[in-house]
Write a structure and sequence with these properties.
With 173 residues, the protein is of the alpha+beta class. The chain has 2 domains: 127 residues, 2-Layer Sandwich (Alpha-Beta Plaits), CATH 3.30.70; 44 residues. It contains 7 helices and 5 strands; from the N terminus they run H-E-H-E-H-H-E-H-E-E-H-H. A 5-stranded antiparallel beta sheet has the order 2-3-1-4-5. It is elongated.
Length: 173
């Protein structure tokens, strides 16, 4: 690759790194053409972007990035693919799903919401991380619960009081 092309490629990688809060590094080496095509289809279906990168160029982009990726540099050996997504746990679930048919891809490391996860043994943990929308839904549900209980108590109490008042008003004196 020519030096001019490398510079532009590093700039694009740096922009990619700065623009995403979710970054997974995976080893997809030794996949044949059919397996690679299946993985890319699966990525497209799950809104996960995948890009194979050269480790040396990725290291340079990491150094130019506004985020300190030093912890991820030690895993940049062999074949590396970057997976990014809007949903934090989507790439982890995708890797797990893709492994049903083989032993690849292997999770090298992940950067999710300012936390680093190193090694394939972190995959189950990453699958269980809740997405931003799931957390917001839980918080809204928790906030609504006491309000619903108060409104329900007031409504049921109102019907009881109304019934008592109606009975008292109809009672002969």
């Amino acid at each position: 690759m020519k030096k001019e092309l490398k510079g532009g490629y590093i700039e694009k990688l740096t922009e990619l790194l700065n623009a995403n809060n979710t970054l997974y590094l995976a080893d997809i080496g030794d996949l044949n053409a059919q397996q690679t095509a299946d993985l890319r289809r699966l990525c497209f279906k799950n809104d996960v972007k995948v890009q194979v990168v050269k480790n040396a160029l990725l290291k340079k982009a990491m150094k130019e990035s506004s985020i300190n990726y030093e912890e991820l540099e030690k895993v940049l050996k062999g074949h590396t693919a970057i997976m990014t997504a809007e949903v934090n746990n989507a790439p982890a679930k995708l890797i797990k799903e893709a492994r049903k048919t083989g032993d690849k891809p292997i999770l090298k490391a992940a950067y999710v919401e300012e936390c680093f996860y190193i090694g394939d043994n972190q995959l189950d943990y990453l699958c269980n991380i809740k997405s931003k929308n799931e957390l917001i839904g839980e918080i809204v549900g928790l906030l609504q619960s006491p309000i619903k209980n108060v409104v329900s108590a007031l409504q049921s109490g109102g019907n009881t009081i109304h019934g008592v008042l109606k009975t008292l008003s109809e009672r002969p004196e």
